[in-house]
Amino acid sequence: MTEENREAKLRIRDVSMRFRLEEDRSGSLKETFTKMFTKGLKFREFYALHDVSFDVYKGDVLGIIGRNGAGKSTILKIISGIMKPTKGTVERYGNIVPMLELGSGFDMDLSGRENIYLNGAILGYDKEFLLSKYNEIVDFSELHEFIEMPLRNYSSGMIMRLAFSIATVVEPEILIVDEILAVGVENFQKKSRARMMELMSGGTTVLFVSHDMNQIREMCNRVVWLDGGTVRLQGRSQEICDRYRI
Amino acid sequence: MAAIDMKKTGRYILLAYLAVVCLFTIGAFDKLNRKMSFGGNRLFIYLPVVILLGVLLYYYTRLLERSMENGKPVFGAKLFLTIHKYRFLIEQLVSRDFKIKYKRSALGVFWSFLNPLLMMIVQHIVFSHLLNIRGDVQHYAIYLLCGIVMWNGFNDCSMQSMRSITGNAALITKVYVPKYIYPVTKVFSASVNVLLSMIPLLLVTLVYGLFSTPRLYLHLSVFLLPFGLIFLLVFCIGMGFLLSSLMVFFHDIEFLWTVLSTAWMYATPIIYSLSMFEGKQGVQWIVSLMNFNPLYHYISFIRTIILDGTSPAFTEYLICGAFSIVMFFIGLTVFRKCQDKFILYL
Fold first, then answer.
1. Confidence class of residue B186 from pLDDT cuts 50, 70 and 90?
2. Where does A3-95+208-243 sit in CATH, by number?
3. Is A84 close to B340, i.e. CB distance below 8 A?
């Protein structure tokens, strides 16, 4: 199948992201003002991304590889809408579930049950959906007897299990994953890995950042290699992985 | 799917309108049922206007429905869709704030009643027995309580919403949610408290009124209280937009605002009355300046309803409404301009 007649899920066109690094960042009004009058505010411009373009098609599992600071996380944030690019456009066709950091919407004082609804709402699920999937989430997380306890009494492993269960209960059209998630004890690790594989093979379009080249080879069909904020190479996963040397 | 939602939304709009009309008619009936200077009853103008507006609103909801079917967006359709989409999230965030606030206190939600009550007792003792600045205000305790409740509401809302963006930094940098939601939900959750503190206000008025000379009774005008609260709420949302976006860039705002709000509190006749200045030379500018203090208008609005037992003058509705809407749009514009930069500064 040629790429042109497949259904595009994401079109990323000439995306640039410029950061202004103030020489020493001042957080206060007074400092900013005094600097404005004395030596002026000094900025160092820094492009985290420079004219990045690529497409992602339905059913793709796209790996993004590159060194630290190559712009991998930035492009994920731009695609999921958290950051707005300085230049360029991102077109999205379908609902996106970003799994950038699990459980960032959790509130430690609320119970597990309350957190399922809160975090679910933050991830954009609606009420009916959450009500119908509530048991499934609890079952998957294996937290039955603790679900009414406040989260501050949970162990970190339990929190990750709950977060993972909430995040993967949907079958999103586009899933964005920063590093593969393997959480909890060995038993749960296997389960979560299996769930990820199930999502990835189930027709979901996946964007996936990892440093583990074996994982990339194993799971991705296409790879984009970012280097210093630009696309160095993109194409079939085996091809790129063979040429990729850090 | 969307068309069905719009049908519901339309029904809600009409219901809201009906509620507003009912409250207003009951609350302000004594002022509405009055002869005008050129003869004829005010009701003869009021009723046709209400009916006409209702009919227009009905056509608007029909238009909304149809716009969903043929895909031509009508003014406001996008807003309703957004509200519908994020209603559940707003609900969850508000309920979280509310649960958290009293989670570890023994008396829990009762603090919402107790707080204004205790504050009033303290301030009543200080200001009517130690310092005599009550002037010639009748029912000073109630006068004070109205002011405290409204001011605390405003102060709570602005403080909470100011930290809404910086406080949710962990979320904003991880998940995409329209950022408007954060200040708005903070104002909502703070205003639940304002709403609850209306209960002690009315109860105290009821009990106090029985034992005071002259007697003070609650009148039908209490049905107008929601209007005062809505004006305050909209004003607070605007303020929240403004403060929360400034807060991202200058953390100093937090400290500056505590000073500013204290100054504002003393500039508002909460513990004193404007009648103090009557007949004094050289201070008349204070009285005329007060017209530009929105909080003064909101507090007077409530005081007229409770102490005078009648509806505020109709111009007062316009003034309060204008302040709210202007503040709302100032805040919204600033927030809109800044929101894409938030993430770079969090």
1. very high
2. 3.40.50.300
3. yes
What ipTM is given for this predicted complex?
0.79
CB contacts, 8 Å: A27 with chain B: 250-251
Nearest to B228 by CA among B160, B293, B296: B296
Quick check: B173 contacting A, CB < 8 Å?
yes
Residue ranges of chain A with per-residue pLDDT less than 70: 1-5, 22-43, 180-185, 245-246
Query: Tokens 């944030």, residue?
Result: A77
* Cβ pair A89, A6 in contact under 8 A: no
Contact A29 B252 (CB under 8 A): yes
Q: What is the pLDDT of residues B125-180, one digit of tens each?
A: 887 777 766 667 788 888 888 998 899 899 999 999 999 999 888 888 888 888 99
The segment(s) of chain A belonging to CATH 3.40.50.300 are 3-95+208-243
Considering only the beta carbons, identify the residue of A28, A104, A122 that sits closest to B89.
Answer: A122
- Give the pLDDT confidence score for residue B103 in this predicted structure: 77
Angle at which helices B2-27 and B43-70 pack, to 10 degrees?
Answer: 170
Q: Which of residues 121-140 of A touch B (CB under 8 A)?
A: 121-124, 126-127
Which of A29, A46, A102, A178 is the best substitution to test chain B (most B C-beta atoms within 10 A)? A29
Q: Which of A134, A154, A117, A101 is nearest to B96 (CA)?
A: A117
Q: Is A19 helix (H, G, I), strand (E, B) or coil?
A: strand
pLDDT confidence of residue B235 = 96
A84 touches chain B (CB under 8 A): yes
3-state secondary structure A99-138: ECCCCCCCCCCCEHHHHHHHHHHHCCCCHHHHHHHHHHHH
Percent of the residues in chain B that have a pLDDT greater than 70, as a whole number? 96
Which positions ≥6 away from A131 have C-beta within 8 Å?
none
What pLDDT does A1 receive? 44
Residue A118 and residue B171: Cβ atoms within 8 Å?
no
Measured between alpha carbons, how far is A219 from B162 in angstroms, rounded to an integer? 45
CA–CA min distance B339, chain A (Å): 10
